[in-house]
Amino acid sequence: MLLERITLKDFRCFHGDHSIEFSVDPEKNVTLIHAENGVGKTTILNAMLWCFYALTTQRFEKKDDLVNYDALSEGRTTGFVEVTFRHNNTRYRARRFAGRNIGQERAFSIMKLEQGSSKELDNPDTFINSVIPRGMANHFLFDGEHAEGFMGEENRGGIRRAVQDILGCSLIDTAIKDLSDAASFYRKQMPKGPTSAEVQRLSDRVEVLENQIKDAESARSALETDVATIEQQIADIEGKLRNSSAARELQSRRDSVGRALERARSRETQAREEMIKWLGENGRFLVSTRITELTFDHLHQEETKGKLPSPYNEEFVTDLLEMHKCICGADLHPGSDQYNAVAGLLQKAANKTLRSRLGNIQAGLNHLKRGRADAPGKLDAANKQLASAVEEISRFEAEQAEISEKLQGINFDEISDREKKRNALRLEAKAKSEAVGEFKLKISQATEEKLSVERDLKRLAENDDQARIFVTRFSLCEALRDRLDRDLKDEEESARSVLRLSIRKILEATSRKNFRLNMTEEYGISLVNEAGTQLPKSGGENQLLGLAFTAALVEFAKTRQNADDFMLLKGTVAPLVLDSPFGQLDESYRQTTASFVPRMAGQVVLMISGSQGASGVLTALQDRIGREYALIRYNKGPRGNKSREFRQFYGKDFELAHFDSAFDGSAFEEVKV
Amino acid sequence: MADTPADTEQKENKIIAEIVELQRAYYFENKNKDTERRRALRAIIERATPASGANSAA
Predict the structure, then answer these.
(1) Cα(A53)–Cα(A56) distance, rounded to whole angstroms?
(2) Which of A343, A415, A545, A664 has the most C-beta neighbours closer than 10 Å?
(3) Which residue is closest to A466 within chain B, CA to CA?
(4) Do A365 and A272 lie in a common domain?
């Protein structure tokens, strides 16, 4: 099947007539529809499912309210969905009407379109089931938001049904149920004759045992699901504990870095104190450099000039004045000019104290000079010590910040609770596994007893002409049922192997983790590492797994399109409609998955919101997009305080919501032809 | 003379083919008529095991 066009008329959120064309180009096989939440993505997916089969997905609310509310209030009581498609080189148009007064015969029709004329098919249901069997259709319409739960442990039945649907087991499955029903019918029909009391007793016993087996199998299956759920919970906890153990290592590293940081800070403080102390002791050598040099220069100049110290000694001048005799022999009379001239020398004459002071100054200046010469080396050493401490502090602080970032979000108090919870779950799983074993034993014993009672019943009935025929039919039904059951199990096993391989390949191409898929006989799906340890599944991984499973089913259906097996339905090639398949995936997964999506089927209709359709996704898809639309919301009410929302496609702005409109509903706008 | 296992299998195959065909018809017709289908299946069983020659297939 290749979709060409869909028209929605007064259907759900589509008021009036709205159509889009799908890309039929095999190279550009993706039709991309941008739609924010609540605008109609799920409606489009359900419109197709409903048009072909009158079915809707689980998530589709108010399944019976299909006609648009505004259309109803305007007096229009019906709506419809019309899908034009190609199948085996012929065009068809399927149309299904919704509304209270639509008769069964009018509700669904398929027209074969040939060279300008059209012819209505007599059995549209039969035809559409031959194009895409009803059971398979759900798997071509992927509800991404539902996928997470689909792959959960609680949905083993759903996974089994999906495998059976695509395998086309529906015929055998119903036949098995019908044969069980017929066997029971014939056993109860055995007439009362001479041996009637015993026949009745044995027949009743078979029924009791059948019920016991059925109940025990149901209990065993429920317990096995419980055990699988617990095992996944344990795997989740162990995953968190592995993180906790990593957290413990980080914490220990943080402690060690903290201690090293403290030591570095202490060294820094010490280095600074050393510098201050050193500066206190030696700083004067640095600050006095200029003064010392000027003083030395001045002293040297004065010494050179013979002015410092003064050439006249105070004691010598006083002696001359007391002796009234100059050194030249002339008399010195007090009051005479000569006397006053010699006495005037006392003002500049050097005495003992002055000479001593001058000597001290010179000695002090020499000390400063020597200290100054040593100062740079000592300062450098102190500086180096300080710089080393500061560098270490900076490094340790950066390491601490890095560790802190890694530790964010980890609650250490929860770790011990998790340990306890894990141990409790282990005990619970063990108890339930033991209970499973007990039920298996019960089933085995009851089956053995049933076979024995059935043999007795047959022997007894062989001798009863009236009962014999019913025993024969009963036995035939049981034999046929057992054979079909075995055939179904064999078919399922080979289907599981193909699907398992296919999913593994897809996961290898899309997942960043190195894990393997495990699918048990009971359809328990888990992710295991190379050592075989079950791994926790995140929401994103469940969604990826759901998508991979869908891709594998689509591929499997395609390989079976020409299958020649009268007991199984043929596979099919159908378009894949994906609603929000990236919701739970992170940006990196989205991009990888987006590049894989066009290869999932010959034709893909992809519906994504703005957040899911970030640039990475669009870049990965750009060469494969054939048609592209945006779903725009129209509201009758006023805008109020709501801000205007735009998205830009190919350089053009598209306003996502309009107000004060003529109707409430959604409409398509083509953004790329 | 009693049927050999091969004979029995051949007869069973024939009945299974009929049953599957019945299931196929009801599946594609989109009929939700379980009672009718089960009655038709019993008719197949009864044709294969006529009351006069009670062990024609089993």
Answers:
(1) 9
(2) A545
(3) B51
(4) yes
Q: B12 and A469 in contact by Cβ < 8 A?
A: no
- Spatial distance between the Cα atoms of A672 and A650, rounded to a whole number of angstroms: 8
**A128 and A27 within one domain:** yes
What is the total count of domains within chain A?
A: 2
Question: Is A218 in the same domain as A358?
Answer: yes
A vs B, Cβ pairs < 8 A, gives 82
Interface test with B, best of A129, A187, A472 (most B CBs within 10 A): A472
Q: State the Cα–Cα distance between residues A273 and A262, nearest whole angstrom.
A: 16
What range defines the domain where residue A414 resides?
Answer: 194-283+352-463
| Residues of chain A with C-beta less than 8 angstroms from the C-beta of B58 | 472-473, 475-476, 479
**Does A233 lie in the same domain as A126?**
no
Say which CATH number the domain at A199 has.
1.10.287
Q: Single out the residue in A463, A478, A507 at which a domain terminates.
A: A463
| A229 located within any domain | yes
Same structural domain for residues A459 and A370? yes
Q: In chain B, what are the helix, strand and coil shares in percent, each to the nearest 5?
A: 65, 0, 35
Q: What pTM does this model have?
A: 0.62
Q: Domain boundary at A463, A485, A509, which?
A: A463
For chain A (673 residues), the mean pLDDT of every run of 10, in chain order, is: 95 94 94 90 90 84 87 91 93 92 77 89 87 79 65 66 80 92 87 69 84 88 81 74 71 83 85 76 65 72 64 79 83 85 79 74 75 70 84 88 74 73 84 88 88 83 79 90 91 86 82 74 74 68 79 85 79 85 78 86 90 79 93 92 87 91 92 73
Inter-chain CB proximity A171 and B23 less than 8 Å: yes
DSSP string of A34-90? E--TTSSHHHHHHHHHHHHHS---TT--STT--B-HHHHHTT---EEEEEEEEETTE
